[in-house]
Amino acid sequence: MIILIVGGSGGIGRALVNRYASEQPEAQIYATYRTSRPDTTPQNVQWFHLDVSQEDNVRALAAQLPKVDVLINATGLLHTPDKLPEKSIQEFDPDFFNDNLKANTLPTLLLAKHFAKALKAKRPTYFVALSARIGSISDNQLGGWISYRSAKAALNMALKTISIEWRYKLPNCCVLAFHPGTTDTALSVPFQKNVPPGKLFSADFVAQSLTDLIQSKQASDSGGFYSYDGSAITW
Ligand SMILES: NC(=O)c1ccc[n+]([C@@H]2O[C@H](COP(=O)([O-])OP(=O)(O)OC[C@H]3O[C@@H](n4cnc5c(N)ncnc54)[C@H](OP(=O)(O)O)[C@@H]3O)[C@@H](O)[C@H]2O)c1
């Protein structure tokens, strides 16, 4: 089993790396980091430097990994050092919007383009991206956070479109969007005080939910959007 965790140094990404490394000691695990490579790492994990928004970086990594069984993109962005998500359209800023698309939408498209060959196999394979319920158009009751919402909605559309194209081209690949719930990582820190008791999950819990979900799904489930509790989310 060959597993690639893109964004393996992020909060959820790191927990996924550790979970797979302990659950599947015989697996070869590849993980990527952008800013800093974690100091301690399980034995069966090999790290690569990757800026996943740069196509030449993604192409070069794909050239090194000709076969992948499970690819999870755990990268993303909600806020920057000087910008929080918008409360109203008056706060909309084109640069922040573009940052959101670049971090939350573009990487999955590049990964699908360059890893399609590695994921094409007679055995089951998985292409999974961390999305967010907030990217569901039908579930949107609150408004706000317009750049992140739009970027995750675009990610969802991209995943659905890829799943349809791959139904014939990669018939054994299952393409999934995953909502982790509010998870205790750097990404959610500015918003954690509003989370109801019991609804702030540890990254380890979320990693287990996702690995369990992947194990329970097959190619016929491709094109689905699932929550941490295994329930389907409407687009
Ligand atoms: N945490 C939550 O409550 C929550 C809720 C819903 C959805 N999600 C989604 O879950 C995913 C993981 O989030 P998280 O909570 O683990 O956040 P996190 O701890 O902030 O990790 C995000 C990671 O993405 C990496 N990244 C961003 N742009 C990148 C790029 N161009 N190239 C390579 N790496 C890049 C960051 O790398 P650097 O360290 O180098 O910046 C960081 O390691 C995201 O897609 C997020 O939208 C999270």
Automatic annotation (TrEMBL):
This is C factor cell-cell signaling protein. GO terms for cellular component: cytoplasm. One of its GO terms (molecular function) is oxidoreductase activity. InterPro entries: Fungal_SecMetab_SDRs, NAD(P)-bd_dom_sf, SDR_fam. Coiled coil: none annotated.
